[in-house]
Design goal:
A 5-stranded parallel sheet has the order 5-4-3-6-7. A two-stranded antiparallel ribbon has the order 1-2. 24% of the residues are buried. Strand 4, helix 2 and strand 5 form a beta-alpha-beta unit. The protein is α/β, with parallel strands linked by helices. Helix 3 runs parallel beside helix 4. Helix content is 31%, strand content 16%. It has 8 helices and 7 strands, in the order E-E-E-H-E-H-E-H-E-H-E-H-H-H-H.
Length: 229
Amino acid sequence: QARRGGARGRLAFSYPSSVMGTRAVLWFRNDLRIRDNQLFQYREVRAVDVLIALYFIDPRHFAQSSYGEHSRTGSHRALFLAESLLDLDRSLRELGSRLCLVAGRPEDVIPSIVGAGGVLAFQNEDTHEEQQVEDAVLQALAGGVTVLRHFGHTLLNREDLPFDPAIGLPMPFGKYWHGDCQTVLPRPELPVPKAGELPPPPGQWMWRSVSSSGGSSSSSASAQPWRRL
């Protein structure tokens, strides 16, 4: 069951005693795929009793843009996102799992789902707003949570580069192209998980609880973005 409490209105979830085993949350963001995805490779993720795959329909992504009278997510992008989510859910079901869509803000939901002593895995982002969301989620987590993070946007693994892209890029570009770029190679593609290798998803109690969170805010505003998809 979901309940809203606290000054910030964070959602809290209560779990039946029969499902209080260890659980891991895979927080999907801009990595909507199972192929070559580090999320599925963590030993801590595969060792839990329950695996919860989440994607958030964040209302902030559908708000009016500050650069004009249009939504931050247009119709074409929304359609592509919806198709990508359907494809990811289909791929997860083939592995014995499934994707849960949540209309709301990650920092309001993830902490209660992970719980104390759980596992949270997600892909880091480089952009400012996404990093702010990451910080808000991490600050709200309970004690003892194992957080697993990685970067996955680049062809070359950041750990293989002789510089940190978050600090600065080599200049001029020709120096990088004729130097590091010729000596550092892409890493081999990560294996795709097979059916039965991942922990099982939660039961129907989980989906009822999370889906109810979307309409628990005033005027069900957080549920509006998904209707547009």
